[in-house]
């Protein structure tokens, strides 16, 4: 009997946590190359500081960052002090066409706890705090 009570209590708690997560905001990042820092906390909505030219659109419960960059054939080069990203055909001889990561947008995003994060066709560097998905 005790196991049944524990199981029912666990299922109830899981359902409550899932419902809370489903009610959260959604942050979607697409076609983006750059640095992001997502800080979660007791915020009522998603706010983006200093989008550096990246297109940001917001509707009820959904924030979209779409920089319109094509990520096909992306190549990264890194050293101890820098990261460079090149777009286009790669070859062993390719030495040009790379841009330093600092030349791409940097986003500071503040989001409520239990925010859902969707990332599509992007090259991201940075940190994301605990999120719902």
Distance between the termini: 34 Å
Per DSSP, what share of the residues sits in E-state strands of 2 or more residues? 35-45%
Question: What is the overall silhouette?
Answer: elongated
Task: Classify the secondary structure makeup into a structural class.
Answer: alpha/beta
Mean pLDDT: 79
* Series of H and E elements: HEEEEEEEEEEE
3D structure, described in words:
Keywords: Signal. Residues 1-23 form the signal peptide. By secondary structure, this protein is of the alpha/beta class. It has one domain (25-128). The protein is built from one helix and eleven strands, in the order αβββββββββββ. The strands form three sheets. A four-stranded mixed beta sheet has the order 4-5-1-10, with no helix packed on it. A four-stranded mixed beta sheet has the order 3-9-2-11, with no helix packed on it. It has a three-stranded antiparallel beta sheet with strand order 6-7-8, with no helix packed on it. It is elongated and about 50 Å long. It starts with a helix and ends in a 5-residue tail after the last strand.
How would you summarize what this structure contains?
Residues 1-23 form the signal peptide. The protein has 133 residues and is α/β, with parallel strands linked by helices.
Give the helices and strands, then pairings.
Elements: H1 2-22, E1 26-30, E2 33-41, E3 47-49, E4 55-59, E5 62-66, E6 74-78, E7 83-87, E8 98-100, E9 106-112, E10 116-120, E11 123-128
Parallel strand pairs: 1-5, 1-10, 2-9, 2-11
Antiparallel strand pairs: 3-9, 4-5, 6-7, 7-8
